[in-house]
Design a protein that fits this description.
40% of the residues lie in helices and 15% in strands. By secondary structure, it is of the alpha+beta class. The strands form 3 sheets. It has a 4-stranded mixed sheet with strand order 3-6-7-10, with helices on one face. The chain has a 4-stranded antiparallel sheet with strand order 4-5-9-8, with no helix packed on it. A hairpin with a 2-residue loop joins β1 and β2.
């Protein structure tokens, strides 16, 4: 167990007054490697993590998972990554625990988690199994935003809540090749039908949960009035004959998400599943705003979890790694290492504060932009922190046998999620300069 608490110095020994935490501190070798090598060379020394943003020190108690659950998720992650395999065993356990219904109201069999509560759960899950957390994020934000929208009368989404309560899995279909404006426009076409339904044709990329989703939420363009095109937000069933999944996913990181392409060929989107429409451009109705207000903080929380895990690996390794220098015995005693760890801790404290702040309701014209700012800051800072961790750990960190190598790859995708860095900076910059 990791021991944390009030630090006391006694010569070269780091003592701690309180003992809490979960999982062996040094579970940092990838179990899928043929011959895992030890990552410590100072056996017998007890490494510690004291940061309040770390699951090894903050005493967080999940409402869904035990320490043993997290151990299993963590142990499977290397195999999923190495085999480019979907997290099937993890997924079954998440379903059994009721996690995919977490934000639903209790009247529908959910746990009624708030955005802040769910963000903390996602941060914890991502710490141990990044790809698992990222993929289920794409279902959870539909569930959370629908519960929120229903409670505030923003959209007719009782059917969506009922389907999630019945165990249906929802995927997100917003990524498109060549679409650099996100929800403002679409290359997928929605052709209106006399009964109010739509026929959908086109391709969506990066649709996580591809092996298991039942319905996919998309945005598509209705050009029936060429002078006034608009965007339709709706859902399509997987079993529609006009839907097929093309297994295209073989990526650098978060490989277990199984984010394959989804292709629509005159697929049906039923009339009652249209949850929002708006003109082409950044003019979003309240429901879409609610959707983003859940998606962005939850996504930020996942990448925070990845960075926190990477930093903890660096901290633990530095405390148990010997040095040949005459003035120190371990790497943790080097001023350069201490400086790097301090910089990383400060960065994560700032991310935690910003992300947690946007999980609470805000007011004013600037409020909606803070979630965008949090996403950009969290994902780019997470990448910076992982890079620091790599520098602290050294060359061993890029070995396939080291957990940090996988985290280094996983964190790279953060700023690529829509809206990407360019889009976020352009929006915030324009508004700040009075041009928006």
């Amino acid at each position: 167990m990791c021991r944390v608490g009030n630090n006391l110095r006694d010569g070269n020994t780091l003592l701690c007054a309180v003992g809490i935490g979960i999982i062996s501190c040094m579970t940092v070798t990838e179990t899928s490697a043929p011959t895992p090598s030890p990552v410590t060379d100072a056996p017998g020394l007890e490494a510690v993590v004291v940061s309040g943003t770390s699951p090894l020190a903050n005493g967080f108690g999940s409402r869904f998972f035990t320490d043993d659950d997290y151990r299993r998720f963590h142990a499977r992650a290397p195999r999923y990554d190495a085999e480019n395999a979907f997290f099937a065993e993890d997924f079954a356990e998440l379903v059994a625990a009721g996690y995919l219904k977490a934000p639903l109201p209790e009247r529908l069999g959910g746990s009624g988690l708030t955005l802040a509560e769910l963000a903390r759960e996602q941060r914890q899950l991502a710490y141990w199994a990044p790809a698992t957390a990222l993929a289920v994020n794409m279902h959870l934000y539909w569930a959370g935003s629908a519960a929120d929208a229903s409670a505030h009368g923003l959209a007719e989404v009782e059917w969506l809540l009922a389907d999630i309560a019945a165990g249906r899995i929802f995927a997100a279909g917003h990524g498109e090749r060549g679409n650099d404006v996100g929800l403002d426009d679409s290359q997928v076409r929605a052709v209106p039908q006399p009964d109010g339904s739509y026929r959908i044709t086109g391709r969506k990329v990066f649709t996580s949960l591809s092996p298991v989703w039942d319905q996919i939420g998309i945005h598509a363009r209705d050009d029936s009035d060429p002078n006034h095109p608009f965007i339709v937000h709706t859902f399509v069933r997987r079993d529609d004959p006009g839907v097929r999944v093309e297994e295209t996913w073989d990526a650098l990181g978060v490989r277990a998400t199984a984010s394959h392409d989804t292709v629509f060929d005159d697929a049906l989107a039923e009339a009652y599943k249209v949850v929002a429409t708006h003109p082409v451009g950044p003019v979003y109705p309240d429901y879409v705003g609610t959707l983003l207000s859940w998606y962005l903080p939850l996504l930020s929380s996942v990448y925070f979890g990845i960075a926190r895990r990477a930093l903890d690996l660096a901290i633990l390794g530095a405390q148990t790694r010997n040095s040949l220098r005459r003035d120190v015995s371990r790497h943790a005693q080097k001023p350069a290492v201490q400086r790097q760890i301090a910089q990383a801790e400060i960065k994560l404290e700032a991310v935690a504060a910003l992300v947690e702040s946007v999980t609470r309701p805000g007011t004013g014209d600037w409020s909606p932009l803070r979630a965008l700012a949090a996403k950009e800051f969290a994902t780019t800072t997470a990448r910076e922190v992982v890079d620091i961790a790599v520098q602290v750990v050294g060359a061993s960190s890029v070995s396939r046998r080291h957990e940090l190598e996988r985290l280094y790859r996983d964190v790279r995708t953060g700023s690529l999620h829509p809206p990407n860095t360019d889009a976020v900076l352009e929006i915030i910059g324009a508004v700040a300069l009075g041009q928006g």
